[in-house]
Write a structure and sequence with these properties.
The chain is mostly helical. It is built from 7 helices and no strands. It is globular and about 55 Å long. About 20% of the residues are buried.
């Protein structure tokens, strides 16, 4: 169930927000409905890319699970998993939506862009994680 909701969130929400942000940056005003109609043809390639992402991450998690007997190797594999997740998949929706690429080309382009900006992506991910943790703690009190 989590995989399905994540798929819907990435494809629908991030796809539409990417289009809205792009249009706003260019000085245009666009509604969510118009943004959805604009990206509608890109949702299938984005869905395919997200499914490939899930398969890659799942395969890496399985490898890490098998390698747990070798703790130092497992640690390096876990760092590699985080690197691949951040470098390739954080920029995948904007690349596929805005550059109108195929799944394969979009994954390669997102990987190339993500590797070049890995420290910015890591920093932003950590800041968002900290903000999320603080909000969660405040809401529990």
């Amino acid at each position: 169930m989590l995989a399905i909701t994540t798929l819907l969130q990435v494809v629908l929400v991030q796809g539409i927000i990417t289009q809205l942000a792009s249009e706003s940056y260019l000085g245009f005003r666009e509604t969510a409905g118009k943004a959805f109609r604009t990206v509608q043809s890109r949702l299938f390639p984005l869905t395919g890319a997200v499914i490939i992402e899930f398969v890659i991450i799942f395969a890496l998690i399985c490898v890490i699970g098998v390698m747990t007997v070798f703790l130092p190797i497992c640690a390096f594999l876990f760092i590699g998993l985080i690197y691949i997740w951040l470098a390739m998949f954080s920029l995948m929706p904007p690349v596929i939506i805005l550059e109108r690429t195929s799944v394969g080309l979009g994954l390669r382009r997102a990987w190339s862009l993500g590797k070049a900006r890995i420290w910015q992506i890591l920093g932003l991910t950590l800041v968002i994680g900290i903000i999320n943790s603080v909000i969660t703690l405040v809401c529990r009190v």
